[in-house]
């Protein structure tokens, strides 16, 4: 994980782009999904029989890219071109360019509705595959999240799992309070978990739910692993340089 | 046209298992048979248009073919960004079929009017925009377009032409040829244009598809260097296309819905009279243009 975190920071420093703290916030979640949960492989990246994962908070793309490279979906060398003019890897992921990316996100509140559609699609086609989506807590300000929450429970989409990256970055604007209770009140099965404890994340993702979609509220830390960046909003869309970069890489864990 | 929409969809639902219909709590009575016959592919999805468009894109990711149906402003203006990102940017195919057009719901006020739909949707690259003038044209154009992998917007209206054409997606029809000028008639305005110009020596070109735009037919058939563009939505949406299509400089006049809130009530016909959308208005405008 340390290597992936280093890569995220280096990519951002080199390109002077990207949202590092958001990527570090979701990295453990992404790793567990791609390493142990998703039924998907680089060879079967467009197979109709694959599970679907959507990173609704597309600005955490750095995290997704390092995991996709580690798992062989994309060439590791392409990471070095992050955000260059002709690169396939932009500040937000593009499904038309990157193998393994299911949705072009970036504008918040779009990924969950599409995930609901993909889950309903599996039901219509009578397939057993599952759909996973990561949304941010700030993103939960968007009305489409709650529109989708209603749709998913009304249509009994127990093949849908929404993971909320609850790093409280939205608190400075709108406080969301108890998200677990909110999703439950919308008819979901919901549970909270330490979003940096990979074993606990895995166990939460493995729990079965009958007739209800599942929300996992992952307690995360924005900038997790870098004491300098953790929960410091200054770093949301800032790239490190010079001595600062050396210091961040040195103290990373 | 609405009855034809129900018929066309019922027919395709039987033949094409990929078709999924999402009703925004509109047309539920019309589609009552389909709702009970195909419960896994016909949904009264609710009054949440933005999430519905996103959901439809998710269905398209699964290689299903979504059709979203509601009133024009809610289907387009309210969820413009969902159409842009979830379908346009992602290169996913789907269909939106709206009702209400510019002011079919005249008495309900401007919240239910949508003269801007065509103009705003034209900003989405590669979108297809269909403005049928008759029920049979909707049927034909829907069947041509619905499964071709692109986002297509179908603008249904209460207004229908008596004249019907064999229409091809993306193709204009030359209805009559004349020398003094050209009238472009879009969708349900054709009847009025034809009566207004029956004694005038002008070319009439009919458009039921706005995107893709048929530059070729327009280019070959513009007569007299003068064009009156009659559009049933906000005036001016296709002016640039007409200019680009023409090989010669043009004198252009526009007859469409003016960019103002039509905050009177009453009927569609009363609004026509108010904004200068009658046969007599068209006649006068064509005559004026030809004499200029």
Number of domains of chain B: 2
Binned, the helix content of chain A reads: 25-40%
CATH class of chain A: Alpha Beta
Mean pLDDT over all positions of chain A:
96
**What is the straight-line distance between the termini of chain A?**
8 Å
The helix-and-strand class of chain A reads alpha/beta
Please report which band the strand proportion of chain B falls in: under 5%, 5-15%, 15-25%, 25-35%, 35-45% or over 45%.
15-25%
- Fill in the CATH topology of the largest domain in chain B: Rossmann fold
Topology pattern of chain B, helix = H, strand = E: HEHEHEHHEHEHEEEHEEHEHEHH
What is the assigned CATH homologous superfamily of the largest domain in chain B?
Thiamin diphosphate (ThDP)-binding fold, Pyr/PP domains
Largest interface, with counts of residues having CB < 8 Å to the other chain, equals: A-B, 33 and 30 residues
- The helix content of chain B, as a percent range, equals 25-40%
The CATH fourth-level homologous superfamily of chain A: Thiamin diphosphate (ThDP)-binding fold, Pyr/PP domains
Low-confidence stretches of chain A: none
Tell me the number of strands of chain B. 12
Our Rg estimate of chain B from Cα atoms comes to 19 Å
Strand content of chain A: 5-15%
Shape of chain A: globular
